[in-house]
Amino acid sequence: MTREKYNEQVEKALAYFEKAHIVLTEEEKENVEVADFGKNMVDELGLQLVVYINTDRVCAKEMVLLPYQTCPEHKHIPTEGMSGKEETFRCRYGEVYLYVEGEKNTEQLQAKLPESDVTVFHEIVLKPGEQYTIMPETLHWFQAGKDGAVISEFSTRSTDETDVFTDKTIIRETKIEE
Amino acid sequence: MTREKYNEQVEKALAYFEKAHIVLTEEEKENVEVADFGKNMVDELGLQLVVYINTDRVCAKEMVLLPYQTCPEHKHIPTEGMSGKEETFRCRYGEVYLYVEGEKNTEQLQAKLPESDVTVFHEIVLKPGEQYTIMPETLHWFQAGKDGAVISEFSTRSTDETDVFTDKTIIRETKIEE
Fold it and tell me: Would you list the DSSP string of B101-135?
């Protein structure tokens, strides 16, 4: 991703945080992260986030998904002797289509099929104030609806580097071309 | 506390959540908790809260403090073989005066001295977007400023029943007179 595109995503994310009335410090605004999963189509496959805290035991983040932007399918495996990450997503703004392992429970998915491999289709729709907890080692992917979404994540320690993605062409670390 | 007073506190808390633009489900609104610490002066010593999630590993809450209302001094000790609770407070609305163990760093406390025993006076002032992490077994107490406060808490499992309060007349469980 170019630096220009990265900064563009940050600006878009800040506008969403404002719409959702999430107050950030100046330092946090300067450190909004953009993940493009190495696919070079960040508006389709990507995520913008602010990490509030990530200690050995607890992590909290605020995430922004642009309209129909997808966080690709992955799971959290045990890392450094600790159980995999457990995470709760709470929708603060917009609408989130979350897919987890389990019986396919709808004929017509609310989400558009993303440009990366997906294999789980148990659909959970989250509107503002609604939340869902994903236990460790459970495959999941999620997408925002037409208005984008702001999502709070409450979890155990975040170790993105050991996340296992279904689409093996994904690279979790974002590379910025200067 | 009477049921009437309890309901009054719930209504006040809901007004604060609205001011802070925190969206709650109808079920959450009906389950706002009020803690009076058994002191029968809930407007001075008390706390209103909504628990989003509390699993074996992760807890997230949204708390309301009314103007100058204080959560009395306590610490989180190891429980059921697990380390004590680690918690991060993030101010979403208003102003919070937080006191933890450590050097007294101000001549004049921002908080009013509460009607329960306090022994730690290292002051941290949190405005919206600011946060502070309290490690296990650290004594702490906190109070809202004149406009009240809304605080998000991200933590390990919450086990209120083993919290150790400095004021030994405190009872953590709220009793409602019907």
Answer: SS----SS-SSPPPSS-----EEEEE-TT-EEEE-
